[in-house]
Design a protein that fits this description.
Layout lengths: L22 E5 L2 E5 L5 H11 L1 H4 L7 E9 L2 E7 L4 H5 L7 E6 L19 H7 L27 H12 L1
Parallel strand pairs: 1-5
Antiparallel strand pairs: 1-2, 3-4, 3-5
């Protein structure tokens, strides 16, 4: 006896779905489903669109994307480089998580050089600061010793005088 042909295929793909229709962006503890971006730049825009409060003002070079990959050393986070975006996204499973990371901005040179009009005088800062200024922790220059209050016991006669004054 044969099977009844219902017109529906019951075969399941053996491998992961290629070219996913939906992936998951995760930033901090929040996750959002998005359609896969065609380019890295579009992925950055999608990230800003779905996490506007957190990423709206973040520079593009501060944002990176990673996925969890099985490696010989176990599961590890692997960063997706801009030039590999299309190739990597094409191999992801549907709903696979793409983690978004924001790195701190690195300033190598102060672009505000020469804008000194708004600087506050250091003494004003020291006076208003509740914290110890680094220069206050340095040893002070030695001041001369104060004049002696009692006579020096230099001679035998003056020792008796001195002792008499101290004991009385």
């Amino acid at each position: 006896m044969g099977r009844i042909d219902t017109g529906h295929s019951q075969t399941r793909p053996r491998s992961r779905v290629r070219d996913p229709r939906v992936v998951t962006y995760r930033y901090k503890e929040r996750m959002v489903y998005v359609t896969p971006a065609d380019t890295y730049e579009q992925a950055l825009q999608y990230a800003r669109d779905v996490f506007p409060d957190d990423l709206r003002h973040v520079l593009a070079q501060q944002i990176t994307f990673t996925i969890i990959s099985n490696t010989p050393k176990g599961k590890r986070a692997v960063q997706i480089a801009p030039m590999a975006w299309k190739a990597v996204v094409g191999t992801l499973a549907c709903y696979e998580i793409i983690d978004i990371h924001v790195h701190p901005e690195v300033i190598l040179e102060d672009e505000r050089e020469g804008e000194y009009e708004n600087l506050v005088v250091l003494d004003d800062l020291k006076a208003s600061s509740p914290f110890l200024h680094p220069n206050d922790a340095l040893p002070k220059s030695r001041t001369p010793s104060p004049a002696r209050r009692s006579p020096s016991p230099g001679a035998m006669g003056s020792v008796k005088e001195w002792l008499g004054k101290v004991l009385l």
